[in-house]
Amino acid sequence: MAEEAAPHVLLICYPGQGHINPMLRLAKRIAAKGLLVTCSTFSFVRNKLSAASGVSAGGDGVPVGRGRIRFDFLDDHFDGTELDLDDFMRHLETAGRLALADLLRRQAEAGRPVACVVGNPFLPWATDVAADAGITTAVLWVQSCAVFSIYYHFVHGLAEFPREDDLDARFALPGLPGLSLADVPSFLLPSHPYRILGDTIQDQFRNMGRASWVFVNSFAELERDVVAALPSVTPRPPELIPVGPLVELGGPDDDDAVAVRGDLIKAADDCVAWLDAQAPRSVVYASLGSIVMLSAEAVAEMAHGLASTGRPFLWVVRPDTQPLLPEGFLDAAAGGRGMVVPWSPQDRVLEHPAVACFLTHCGWNSTLETVAAGVPVVAFPQWGDQCTDAKFLVDELRMGVHLRAPLRREGVREAVDAVTTGPEADAMLANAKSWSAAARDAVAPGGSSDRHVQAFVNEVTGRACGGQAKASAVY
């Protein structure tokens, strides 16, 4: 396929770290199979994303496999004014609708018309803009199939969810284990302070029928029961097409694609070298992601708890949280067995042989990264889909333990001991390694997720050529 004739796919996502990572990783997998792929989000993160990826905005991009990947941004006219979440989401839609229509027009004028737009659950209006322009659309669901099912049943009133004050109630959905209120994505709870996020996701479900494909960042073997059960639900949901885990696998020199990263916070350069100096399976790696904020008391308990394990620890404490650390803790960590960094190259950290366990908030990206790496977990969810993800990591995949709230230093130490040296530690590690092998098989050439990506590429290519591609794989 001549490079200039390659079909052009545009991926657009919410400007948050947990959305940029899977978008970029799917973009690289599509590009590697011969397409031109543009990654897009809002312009107020342009400089950070361009610096992290090494790809200049608006240019021709860089080669990835047999295709190319490039960046272009929506001009959001954001002046830096501090907005609450509701106003911010409204601003994204108001500015984003016009900016996306303009971006699609500019691509056509530049001789690279967009053949397909892949949208994001936090930007449901992107599907409408692309469809109104006559462009085929897809959606990348960035959470689990299980969470998709819970939202779908809620939006369509297909199940009776327990009252928020009924903590002992249990309910069941097709293909899922018994669930309690604590296992439900917290965006659905009336008391959740960020209801706008739940409302936005529900809006995506209401217009998802306009999309030709619904991709999901998971793999068939991981969530086989729920994927098999969804077609029997009435009204029937769209078919979920697993294309994950959308994680980086292998070392940094495996191929050109790995160098194209999307870290909005600069990762510490010396993490891996520090891990190289630690004994195998000795380090507690702790990170609560890019958004979770703990109270000063909880940060102190976490700090003392990690120190009390007697193990070396690598702890990601974002710059906005570091002022909450106990006085003198950074100096003590640097002079002792701990390392505190503002951000880490998490995929490389989790794959390092020195890491014994991962204390995680259970965001879906982090969940898939630890599954792919085969690292047992201490699950400490805070809100959103993290609650459901923790349930599956501990109770279904059986590769970790819960760290219960309220956070106490003794609880941190006991949870780390349980997952590293406790009576079930060997079984948790074996389960984690088994799921790691399954994840890697899914994205390997000819694996379940790789076949789904190839089928999409074939179909987009066929449509762009005015016909129907003969897919080498089926969804």
Automatic annotation (TrEMBL):
CDD domains: GT1_Gtf-like. Keywords: Glycosyltransferase, Transferase. One of its GO terms (cellular component) is cytoplasm. One of its GO terms (molecular function) is quercetin 3-O-glucosyltransferase activity. The keyword Transferase applies. It holds the Pfam family UDPGT. It comes from the Eukaryota. InterPro entries: UDP_glucos_trans (IPR002213), UDP_glycos_trans_CS (IPR035595). Its EC number is 2.4.1.-. The keyword Flavoprotein does not apply. PANTHER family: GLUCOSYL/GLUCURONOSYL TRANSFERASES, GLYCOSYLTRANSFERASE. Belongs to the UDP-glycosyltransferase family. This is Glycosyltransferase. The gene is LOC101765953.
